[in-house]
Each structure stands twice: as structure tokens, then as C-alpha cells.
Amino acid sequence: MRRERLCCDSAEDWERQTGVIVKLQLRPTKKALIVLGAVALASVGLAFFTWRVQSEQRVKKQAELKAKQEEMQRVVQEAKSLEDSRAQRDEILYRMGFLRDAEPNDYQPALLLDLASLARTCGVQLATFSPTEQRVVDQKSPVARVVEKKLAPHTFQTINGGMEGSYHDVARFLYRLTGLPKIVSVDSLQVQPVQEEGRAPTDVRISFQMTAYAVKFIDPQTLAAAAKLEEIAKAELAYQLEKKVYADLDTLSATNPSLPKEKAVVGAYTFTTDKAATGKNGFKILAKTTKTGLRDLSINQGQVVTDEVNKTPLK
Is residue 57 predicted with pLDDT exceeding 70? Predict the structure, then answer.
């Protein structure tokens, strides 16, 4: 019997040529199921681990972002308060300077004794006394504005206080303030009746604000150094008009022997040129001292002697 070789490309060709139906059925084994389950479980675990790591990183990044935003807000607030801080610093330096200038037991104690003595004489009780140092530019008193450019170097003290007594005794006290050896002006006054048992109908309680004027003490050696700085400044301006540039002390003293040379000592002060600030556009001359109680000074093209400690005009 001759065998014929069948050529079949698929199961359908086989069935058509032989008449035998072929059924293919895949049945996974137990081992395959276990492997597939393990792979699926590992995939789920890997996905959960990845999600958790990403979640932690996201939380961390959000925390860092929030911290950066808070830091930025803090920097903005600090920038806004920088000018106020500078003003407060200048005010503190000014107050410290006044304390350095003040002599022991001088203005405030003497003024308090004068007011207390006047109160006893007039029959009123001085209840409170609170002086506050102020600069000329800070003083709002009309009197302060009038005398601002007419007095010697001076300071103002605002005094907030209170007293009690009869109406006529208080009026006498206020009138006799004009006879004090200190210059004092009353800026504001509030009068209230004393409504307490045992008090006379004419008794009143007074709240007042006064301004006291004090001449600022400047050591004669400091005044002498300031005068020498002003002399140097005039020579600088004359030199600049001729040479179109400002000069150092050695150059100025070569043509004007009355001026100090570089690092020359005059009295308690040593005079030097701030060469970084001296040239075509300006100049700065320093007068420094090591003596306790005196101030370092400077002058520039503005012609104003400056206290180098407080960064305020000396006069």
C-alpha cells in the first residue's frame, strides 16, 4: 500500500484531508499556576512599594516647598521692617550718645527737684513724672519748631506727668513754671474733677505733657577738633575749584602749613584722610581719638561735622 505524504499547514487542513477532528486544549499545571500567582503577587507588591516611595517623596517635597514659602514670606517681612529697624538703631545710638554726654546728677534729677519743690510750694501733689529723650526733628511742639534753628546744640525731653490739688493751686503751679531755671513749656493738659469721698469740690486731677529744653554738652577738645575739620573742608573746596579734584591732608598741608598732615595729632585727635572716599567726586577727613568720653569725628564735601559713633551731626 502506497503512503501518500500529506501536506498540512494548519489543523483545519488536517481535518479536511483526513476527516479526523483535532481538539487542542491547554491545561495549566499546578506548578505553572503557582509561578503565575507568585509573579502577580510580586507585581502587586512592587507596585505598592513604588507607590509608597513616591508618596513619601511627594510628602517630603511638599514639606520642603512649604518651608521655602514660609522662609520667603519671612524674608519679605524682614525686608519690609528693615527701614524701621534702621530707624530704631539710629534712635538707640542717639540715646546712648546722650547718656555718654550727660554729667552725673545733672538735668533730669535737677528738673525733678525743681518741679517737686514748686509743687510743695503751690500745695499740689506731683503724682507721676516720666521724661523721654527726643531729637529736635522728632519734637512736635510748636515752640520746638520755632527754636530749632536758633539754639545752641541741644536736646528736647518730653515729660508726661500727673498731679492733684485744688483748681487754684494747680493754676498757680502752671503759672510759676515760667519762673523755673529750666526752660519748660506745657504742650497739652487734661483736667478731670476728683469725684471721691472726702475731697473738696474744687479738687482736680491733671494729666500733662511738657517739653523741657537742655543744652547738649560738647567737650572743648571735641569742639576744637570740629573747628579744625571745618578749616580743612574749606581748604578742600578751594583746592577742588582749582585742581578739579579733592586732595589728601599731605597735599593740603604742603600749601597751607596751618593744616595738619596725614596722621598728625592735634590735641586729643589724630587726623587722617579716608582715601577710599577722596577723589574727583568728594572727600572725607577723619578725626579719631582714644580718649574716653570724646567722639570720633568726620567731615566731607557736605561741610557738616559728623559724630562717627552716632552718625549724626555734632552740632
Answer: yes
Residues 6+ apart with CB under 8 A from 106: none
Whole-prediction pTM: 0.42
41: left (phi over 0), alpha (psi -120 to 50) or beta: alpha
b/e per residue 62-77 (b: at least 16 CB within 10 A): eeeeeeeeeeeeeeee
Helix (H) or strand (E) holding 166: strand 154-166
**Fold entry, domain 103-215:** Alpha-Beta Plaits (3.30.70)
pLDDT band at residue 176 using 50, 70 and 90 as cut-offs: confident
DSSP 280: S
Contacts of 40 (CB under 8 A, 6+ apart): none
